[in-house]
Every structure is written in C-alpha cells, then in structure tokens.
Amino acid sequence: IRQPKTRWGSCSAKYDIMLNSALVLFPEVITRYVCVHELAHTQHFDHSARFWAEVAKYDATFQQHRKTLKTTALPYWWASV
C-alpha cells in the first residue's frame, strides 16, 4: 500500500502488487476492481483484449468502475495526508 500520485495500482514483473492508499475512500466494488485489474496482470502483462476478458470474468461492470476512478476527484485534504 502506497500513496502514488498517478496510479491506483500496479503489478511488477515479479508479480508484486501495489495498491494506492486512496482506495479506502471509494466503495468496496471500486477497490475490488483495482485488485482484479492488477491480479489479471499476473496472467496478461498488458492491456490486450485477453487481459480485459480476464478482468470481465471477475467484474462484469469493470468499465463503469474504471470510469469512476477516472472521473472522481480526491478530497482536497487527502493530498496532504
């Protein structure tokens, strides 16, 4: 768990998964989407159609969750935490 400025999560080539601490501010379904997304990278280390198909297996509404992350601003006070 970290506090990066530009990523909600990441998966390294060694399958080390990082999650942004700001995910605690979102509903559980959004945090779950990020976890599913990063875990899917352990099977497909890209954003190919196969990758998104893997995500969709575990989160049928991932596109909506992805949009929520892209369009929701964090509270002003979060950046100073």
Q: How is the topology of this model organized?
A:
Layout: E1 9-11, E2 17-19, H1 28-40, H2 49-58, H3 62-71
Helix pairs in contact: 1-2, 1-3
Salient structural properties:
globular, two-stranded antiparallel sheet, 81 residues, 7% strand, 3 helices, mainly alpha
Low-confidence stretches: none
The value of Rg in angstroms is 13 Å
Question: What is the averaged pLDDT score?
Answer: 94
Order of helices and strands: EEHHH
Count of separate DSSP helical elements: 3
Number of domains: 1
The global form is globular
> Which class of secondary structure composition applies to the elements?
mainly alpha
Could you give a short account of the major beta sheet? 2 strands, antiparallel
Strand content: 5-15%
Q: What's the N-to-C terminus distance?
A: 14 Å
Strand order of the largest sheet: 1-2
What share of the residues lie within helices? 40-55%
What is the number of beta strands?
2
Please give a quick description of this structure.
Helix content is 41%, strand content 7%. The protein contains three helices and two strands.
What report would you give on this structure?
With 81 residues, this protein is mainly alpha-helical. It contains three helices and two strands, in the order ββααα. The protein has a two-stranded antiparallel sheet with strand order 1-2. The radius of gyration is 13 Å and the shape is globular. It starts with 8 loop residues before the first strand and ends in a 10-residue tail after the last helix. The model has no long low-confidence stretch (mean pLDDT 94).
